[in-house]
Design brief:
Strand content: 25-35%
Largest sheet: 2 strands, antiparallel
Number of strands: 4
Number of helices: 2
Oligomer: single chain
Bound molecules: iron/sulfur cluster
Strand order of the largest sheet: 1-4
Distance between the termini: 7 Å
CATH topology: Alpha-Beta Plaits
Number of domains: 1
């Protein structure tokens, strides 16, 4: 089972909460926006989805 975390850059305000909460360091900040640079490490826990107040993150099973 694999998961694909995606950030909607138009919604991301760069708060970095998702960077801090992800247990496997999927996200890194690039030019003030979160990017799922290590997406292949995603566990599907959805902690990032819950912490993002902007609703910018979706995680789908692939
Ligand atoms: S928690 Fe949401 S708004 Fe904050 S940096 Fe991550 S994607 Fe952007
Ligand atoms: S679902 Fe969990 S493991 Fe995947 S990116 Fe979000 S916080 Fe990280």
């Amino acid at each position: 089972m694999a998961f694909n975390p995606v950030v909607d850059e138009d919604k991301c305000v760069g708060c970095e909460e998702c960077v801090d909460v992800c247990p496997v360091e999927v996200f890194e900040m690039v030019d003030g926006k979160s990017n799922p640079v290590n997406a292949e490490e995603c566990l599907g826990c959805e902690s990032c989805v819950e912490v993002c107040e902007e609703g910018a993150i979706t995680v789908e099973e692939i």
